[in-house]
Design goal:
With about 240 residues, this protein is mostly helical. The protein has seven helices and five strands. It has two domains: about 60 residues; about 140 residues, Purple Acid Phosphatase, chain A, domain 2.
Length: about 240
Amino acid sequence: MKSCFSTPNYEDGMMDAKLEQREKERKIVMKQHQKVTVVLCLTWALTLLYGEMFAFWLPFLYSCSWSQPHSSSSSTNSSLRINASGDFVKVAVLADPQLMDKTSHNLPPKSLALGLAQFYTDLFMRRAFFASVLPFKPDVILFLGDYFDGGPYLSDVEWQESLSRFNHIFGFKNQARYKDIPVYYLPGNHDIGYSSLHSHKPEVIRRYENIFGKRNFRFTVGKVEFISVDAQTLDGKLRSC
């Protein structure tokens, strides 16, 4: 009879030992999962920091620079020749910022989705410009148009809001920054549309020229003459932006 009473105690001890072993294994697995979670979180944080911050510093620090032309005594073309002192003109060319607005991706005006998209795209362009363009101290900045996405179809109030964002992104609200850097603007179809639009929306041309100046002009950079032509006006076909 003694053996009959001792068997359940033995089985209970075995069960307790198994439960204790499973608990230890569970804790080990949990610790491993926690380590993996920490590693993934750190990887995510570093990736985010790189994309939002370090990616804008690294090109400036390590890889990007203006090419240094050398004078050539055999060169006979005065427009291309660099003088003996190594003088040359640095031109930064920027194209198609196309600031997002109500015409972009069919997002409702003033919606949270549009607001977030505008905030992050504006932030990205501002950081890129100030970290990867201005530090190289260009002598001239040339904008090739398409400053806005749906420029011709914005009301005057909406257009002014986009213009304010444009000035903030590229730092034009601080005029002292561009005191010694000429800036030239060429119109794009996303700014003024095509000629078929101008006859019944003349305000599109008026407000563009009031801010950015004439659409057809010429200017000289170093020894090179540039001629800006409003190609949109020359295109009589009906097209959408």
